[in-house]
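Technical appendix A lists one of the benchmark inputs used to test multi-chain prediction within the project. The record comprises two sequence entries:
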Amino acid sequence: DSGVTQTPKHLITATGQRVTLRCSPRSGDLSVYWYQQSLDQGLQFLIQYYNGEERAKGNILERFSAQQFPDLHSELNLSSLELGDSALYFCASSVRRENTEAFFGQGTRLTVV
Amino acid sequence: AQSVTQLGSHVSVSEGALVLLRCNYSSSVPPYLFWYVQYPNQGLQLLLKYTSAATLVKGINGFEAEFKKSETSFHLTKPSAHMSDAAEYFCAVSFPNSGNTPLVFGKGTRLSVIA
């Protein structure tokens, strides 16, 4: 158990809908990262938050957004969902801003039908 | 551009044989290097990491990796494969001393272990 908790584990939704994925980092970790894993793209970095502030942005679509709350949990919002958004979404956390080591949650498997 | 390449999307070994998973990185600044393992329907678990100390790094489950700057490589090895080692393995790189960059992952290598 990495100490990173993601909910829900599975999510099935229809195209055009909006969903929210939640992540609770390990106790004491200030950085939260979101990754998307798909068969064709592999593991793609989406976005990082550090202590409530956006720190780095990767290949995140404009339809996607995230935030980190004062209690350090994070949410990833995916809207206007398309079939191609079906993937595993991972949250990871680390203590520092710089990514010297990240601990991953179990992921949320999103299926868009 | 900084990147990591894993040679071989699928490696198959016999139980008890040497495991060698290859990873090469491209970087103009000193990297930190990691190997993660992903079992089916699981998240990624850190196997080992190199953060500019000893070049030979020992990790969990009997795995180790050697950082070779001259070859820009960080290959993962295990002397004797076990059936439980069958999983997907990811090499990753970050550059903490060069601004903030998140982990960049290779495409992964699926390891199969044959009885």
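Residues 29 and 47 of chain A are 16 Å apart (CA to CA). Chain A is about 0% helix and 55% strand. Comparable benchmark entries are summarised in Table A2.
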